[in-house]
Amino acid sequence: MKIAVLKEQAAGESRVAATPETVKKFIALGAELAVEAGAGVSASYADADYAAAGASLGDRAATLAGADIILGVQGPDAASLAGAAPGAWLAASLNPFGAGENGGRARVDGYAAAGIEALAMEFMPRITRAQSMDILSSQSNLAGYKSVLDAAAEYGRAFPMMMTAAGTVSAARVFVMGVGVAGLQAIATARRLGAQVSATDVRSATKEQILSLGAKPVFVENVAGIEGEGSGGYAGEMSPEYQAAQAELVSSHIAKQDIVITTALIPGRPAPRLISERQVASMRPGSVIVDLAVEAGGNVEGAVAGEVVTVNGVKIVGHRNVAGRLAADASALFSRNLFNFLSAFWDKETGKPLLDDEIGDAIRLTKGGKVVNARLTA
Ligand code: NAD
User: Fold this and answer.
1) Per the database record, which ranges form the Alanine dehydrogenase/pyridine nucleotide transhydrogenase NAD(H)-binding domain (predicted)?
2) What is the mean pLDDT of the segment spanning 292-316?
3) Do 17 and 69 sit in the same domain of this protein?
4) pTM, whole model, 2 decimals?
């Protein structure tokens, strides 16, 4: 069983899908590991450390030659996987609903045509036994933390209240919209920095979590369609009445905030628009908004992916791949997710992983030359 670890090709991708630690663990399972030279450099993992862990280092062709499993952070296109074994698995974040270079349906069709069995790690079901395999959680947690540091870096004032001989500096007011994994970490990070934090979500279950982190919940009450829980613990789309009430509540709250972090996502759909241009204009100059959903269409009107734009003195931060801005930790957690996944299914007799139906059906996009995932064929 040969496992190939590729150097990421997507622009701006700094992460790597295996670290020397997980290489060692895969070898202990009986696998042979091939790492493309330089794969870990942008995440601070040197070739020599992979070699010391037992991997062979080589160019892309040597890495892929006869590989049974290919690990990636983002899915490379099928043409760049030539040389892998027939029916090889590709385990990565494959972004089949995305557009442009790093995802999309055409890319999935390419895997099918090339006979690759493509496994979309971001489709991992939200069940207890798969928690340790969940790349969305591990990466969102880091993105939530980094979003607050990015906001602090752009903000021309301090976060904590400071009483000095020259006078008092007041605490920053931080509002977190969307309290999933990223939002919870953003709340905790802003609190640690000494900000006054409030937060909102469409799922009422998050109220308790917001309170437990010492922040103030800001919630729409008594409106039809209030319970925003969709399937699998994710949010669903909200009723028009709810959206109107939410917009009104947000308008009055947002004008008093210094920092807003938005994290709201709806799986398989564009991100919900939470902040309008008018609401941005209601904030005082020097305020900062970080849109963590910018690559999914954006929660904030005027946010631009990959840029920090200033509108009426308000900075809107739209960094791409925020987890990748903490490349070493993001890679370590992503790699462990991949190891936890493959090792959980490792069959000692055959020396290969065998997926069960619950997880296999959820994440498998292609097999035997066909697109097989229900989310893509429905
Ligand atoms: P997500 O990234 O899909 O979305 C981020 C947050 O935005 C969610 O809390 C969502 O409710 C919220 N949101 C969506 N539309 C909104 C709107 N219009 N206004 C305000 N907020 C909006 O969410 P996530 O981080 O993946 O977490 C979703 C849930 O799944 C959480 O309860 C989390 O704890 C749970 N979860 C479970 C597992 C597991 O069991 N394996 C793993 C990860 C997360």
Assistant:
1) 152-318
2) 96
3) yes
4) 0.93
Q: Both 233 and 262 in a single domain?
A: yes
Q: Is the CB of 226 under 6 A from ligand 1?
A: no
pLDDT at 246: 80
What is the value of ipTM here, to two decimals?
0.94
Q: What is residue 351's predicted lDDT score, i.e. its pLDDT?
A: 86
CA–CA distance, 63 with 6 (Å, rounded to integer): 8
E strands along 39-185, which residues?
A: 56-58, 69-74, 89-93, 117-120, 162-164, 167-169, 173-177
**Closest residue CA from atom 14 of ligand 1:** 264
Amino acid, res. 327: A
My answer on whether 49 and 111 are in the same domain is yes
Whether 126 lines ligand 1, by a CB cut-off of 6 Å, is: yes
209 and 346 in a single domain? The answer is: no
Percent of the chain with pLDDT over 90: 84
The answer to whether residues 51 and 93 belong to one domain is yes
Residues 6+ apart with CB under 8 A from 157: 169, 172, 258, 286
For residue 94, tell me if it sits in a domain: yes
From the list 56, 59, 129, 131, the catalytic residue is 131
Q: Which of 9, 44, 204, 234 is catalytic?
A: 234
Instruction: Copy the structure tokens of residue 363.
Output: 């994440």
For 152, the domain range is 141-320
User: Residue 235 C-alpha to ligand 1 middle, in angstroms?
Assistant: 6
CATH number, domain with residue 357: 3.40.50.720
Query: Total domain count for the chain?
Result: 2
